[in-house]
Write a structure and sequence with these properties.
Strand order of the largest sheet: 1-2
Number of helices: 6
Number of domains: 2
Structural class: mainly alpha
Number of strands: 2
Radius of gyration: 23 Å
Distance between the termini: 44 Å
Strand content: 5-15%
Order of helices and strands: HHEHEHHH
Shape: elongated
Largest sheet: 2 strands, parallel
């Protein structure tokens, strides 16, 4: 049985020997901790923005292989083929894909900022300039 005391001993061991835990040790610690809960949730947002995407995908595959009862994993990402291909075999529940109209959200945000921000409000005096600013930022955002 894994406990807070085990976690504390692990911390003290690494701290005393002035070393970092290996990836394996971190994963096993997480595994032991997850097995202690009746239900666990792991949420990973913006998987596509991770600098080490493949490492994270490998970790997710490892996590699924543990077959921990009542472990729920939610990962969000923009549609990228390499992520979809890797994740598809791991899915045991539901997969939901939705195309959001992010451009409309970005446009609304830009417009509101130009109206409300004291430093930016001066640009709204000229409606044509305001529209040009909004269009330029929106086209450069590319749905980000």
């Amino acid at each position: 049985m894994f406990s807070a005391a085990n976690l504390e001993l692990l911390y003290e061991d690494t701290n005393n020997r002035q070393r970092n835990l290996t990836r394996y040790e971190l994963e096993q610690t997480l595994r032991f901790m997850l097995e202690e809960f009746e239900e666990s949730f792991i949420i990973i947002d913006a998987l596509d923005e991770c600098f080490q995407t493949q490492e994270l995908l490998d970790f997710l595959a490892n996590l699924v292989s543990w077959e921990i009862v009542d472990l729920h994993v939610l990962a969000t990402s923009r549609r990228e083929i390499n992520i979809e291909v890797f994740i598809s075999p791991l899915i045991t529940g539901q997969l939901s894909t939705q195309d959001w109209d992010t451009d409309a959200d970005i446009e609304l945000y830009i417009h509101k900022r130009l109206q409300d921000d004291i430093k930016l409000r001066k640009w709204c005096e000229n409606l044509k300039l305001q529209e040009e600013i909004e269009e330029t930022i929106l086209s450069d955002a590319q749905g980000m």
